Amino acid sequence: MQHPPTAKPPRRHWTKHLAPLLLAWVLAAAWGSVVQTQFNLQALVGLGVAMPAALRAETTWRDLIGFGPVYAGILAAGWLPALAAAAFLARRWPDWRTPLLAAAAGLGMIAAVRAVDAVAPMPMFIDATRSLTGLLAMAAGAALAGWVYARLTRPGS
Questions:
Q1: Which of 11, 33, 35, 119 could form a disulfide with 68 if both were Cys (CB 3.0 to 4.6 A apart)?
Q2: What percent of the chain has pLDDT over 90?
Q3: How far apart are CA 62 and CA 66, in angstroms?
Q4: Rounded to an integer, what distance in angstroms lies between the CA atom of residue 89 and that of residue 97?
Q5: Count of CB atoms situated within 10 Å of the CB of 35
């Protein structure tokens, strides 16, 4: 008796990754925008400027709207090559997919920010990244977003 040919399992189409990637990208951009705002506001507090909660909240909101899209563009420039490289490596080491994508998202953000700093007329385009603490705080948001993306797109989900 002859068995019918076994159908290949359907390949995951790239569009299944688009919504999770956009969600992660927005999360990372919002995180980075909020972090840079808080670092800047805290620097003003250190200079003796009064910073009531309402002003802090309004400034954060305005930065989300004004700086958030700029930062999202910078983030995308770093993420595209970094996440592509991580996805390539994850095919070879599938057990490491989530940490690879999370690390790539954080490192891609750092690379993009440092590339912008290299061509910007001011010493640092994003003042919060002047310190290692600020840079790592922003990178943590990007890495967390990379982890979210990896979990939402894990095989079998």
A1: 33
A2: 76
A3: 6
A4: 8
A5: 22
